[in-house]
Amino acid sequence: MCPQACSMNHQAFEEMVSRASSPVLWWMGQMGFLMKLGGTLVSIDYYAFPAPGRQIPPPVPAEELRGVSLFFGTHNHSDHMDIPSWKIWLKTCPDARFVFPRAHTDFLLREGFPADRLIGMNDGETVQAGSLTIHALAAAHEFLDRDPATGLYPCLQYVLEGGGKRIYHAGDTLRYEGMLPALQALGHFDAAILPINGRDATRYRANCIGNMTFQESADLAGELRPGLVIPGHWDMFAANSADPHAFADYLDAKYGDLVPCRIPEYLSPILPG
To answer: How confident is the model at residue 10, as a pLDDT?
Structure first.
């Protein structure tokens, strides 16, 4: 496990990426992951800003992250669309593009992001970006919040296909009617990354909106039967956490060997099942 004081420079980072065979995933904390799929390096929901209150520092400082082709944000909260870091990556990854819910296009344009670097998506859409196929599904965090005028959703989930693997990243979401069949229609997932931090009245009143509980995420995994399930959104902030071992224990008790689980460690490579 990468110790809490870890701060990887770009040379060490590039060496780590170059040594790794594809496909591989690295956990960056919270719902943040790097993925090397089909030789393409992507980042999803990486929160690299050294904000007060973090329980762990960024495993790779924003300035040291290089060679990424696609940066994904599932929704416009700072720990998922880290705008200060995205502005750094505009310069340090000059060929990279940014994938996000299209509902936030005007916001990103006002923040100075060039239109030709943006890939806005909405529920049910599929785009091809280089060697990767990207599917977007609406996320309910804690509501779907579809704009009735535009039909746009502010929060998304992504399914990435590349290098012979299909990876599901749930972003921040609850389960909602129609979500399971929409996921099942995309086929078998080699890995599913699910939030487990749950929700309650105390957090909601503090404007900390929630996600699936660990039991709800375990049951979603049990229905999807991915090759591997990875719990996320449990480590970053003490007031918005959960026990990943409770998730793994419940999953094992209810589904046994049908759903393999990996509790991630920072920067430790994960091979999709």
So the answer is: 82
Backbone torsions φ then ψ of 93, nearest 5 degrees:
-125, 75
Q: What is the mean pLDDT of residues 103-132?
A: 98
Q: What is the CATH number of the domain that holds 142?
A: 3.60.15.10
pLDDT value for 259: 97
User: Is 161 a residue whose pLDDT tops 60?
Assistant: yes
pLDDT of the residue at 22: 83
Provide the mean pLDDT of the chain: 95
Closest CA to 72 of 94, 49, 92, 100: 100
DSSP H/E element including 150: none
SS3 category, 219: helix
**Taking the mean position of all CA atoms in its chain, how far away is CA 74?**
7
Tokens of 144: 């779907």
Q: Residues, the chain, total?
A: 273
Give the Cβ contact number of residue 182 at 10 Å: 16
The Cα–Cα gap between 102 and 254 comes to 38
197-239 tens-digit pLDDT? 999 999 999 999 999 999 999 999 999 999 999 999 999 999 9
- What is the DSSP pairing of strand 191-195 with strand 32-37? unpaired
Q: Does 213 fall in a domain?
A: yes
**Residue 271 lies inside a defined structural domain of this protein:** no
**191-195 and 132-138 as β-strands: parallel, antiparallel, unpaired?**
unpaired
Cα separation of 246 and 242, whole Å? 8
Report how far residue 47's alpha carbon sits from residue 162's, in angstroms, rounded to the nearest whole number: 24
The total number of structural domains in the chain stands at 1
Q: What is the CA radius of gyration of the chain?
A: 17
Greatest pairwise CA separation for the chain in angstroms: 49
